[in-house]
Write a sequence for this structure.
């Protein structure tokens, strides 16, 4: 992986400017330097590239109907599917945090991904918006301070104890949780801003 942005840009330009022509590279593996020849292939967008990329492996089929019952049934099925996948995703994040933490995106990356989806197929933007809304809803009900789930947790403790927790404890927990959430938000914004160039290249 190239650490220097100028080196990455130079390497990218070399690949783009040599479609279907061998490019001589030299890679270092440990203390050994290995000569390598690669031939950039021209993709569907007309740009030369090497390596692998994500491409659609199916065709989207939209079914039009005026049957209200069928529409609500399909919407309910899709909603259940997205909620299930979202909960499973949070479960994997908690159980395998070290490997999945890098997949967490902040506002900057979400806007960048949404913009690219709108460019390719604006209709898919509605599904993306629904996915974001469901994710926010699931996050909001988690028993985390400063969220509705945290308030529910306090009410549950109050129900079990027969009386609420002391106000100082509740305020302390809420303030600490709010600071952690704000810190996480700032971290994600900074990280995604730095990596925004990579995000744009990924979708191009």
């Amino acid at each position: 992986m190239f650490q220097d942005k100028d080196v990455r840009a130079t390497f990218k330009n070399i690949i783009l400017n040599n479609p279907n022509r061998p490019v001589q590279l030299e890679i270092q593996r440990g203390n050994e330097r290995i000569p390598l020849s690669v031939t950039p292939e021209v993709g569907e967008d007309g740009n030369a590239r090497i390596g692998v990329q994500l491409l659609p492996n199916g065709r989207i089929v939209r079914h039009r109907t005026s049957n209200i019952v069928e529409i609500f049934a399909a919407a309910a099925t899709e909603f259940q599917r997205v909620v299930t996948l979202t909960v499973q995703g949070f479960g994997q994040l908690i159980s395998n945090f070290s490997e999945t933490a890098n997949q967490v995106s902040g506002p900057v990356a979400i806007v960048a991904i949404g913009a690219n989806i709108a460019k390719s197929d604006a209709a898919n933007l509605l599904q993306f918006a629904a996915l974001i809304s469901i994710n926010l809803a699931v996050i909001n009900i988690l028993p985390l301070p400063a969220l509705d789930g945290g308030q529910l947790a306090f009410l549950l403790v109050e129900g079990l104890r027969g009386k609420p927790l002391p106000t100082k404890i509740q305020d302390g927990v809420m303030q600490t949780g709010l600071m952690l959430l704000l810190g996480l938000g700032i971290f994600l914004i900074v990280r995604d801003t730095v990596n925004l160039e990579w995000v744009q290249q990924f979708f191009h």
Remarks:
- Residues 1-53 form one domain.
- DSSP finds eight helices and four strands in the chain.
- The beta strands are 23-29, 32-38, 41-42, 48-49.
- Helices lie at 5-16, 68-95, 97-100, 107-120, 123-140, 148-161, 167-194, 196-202.
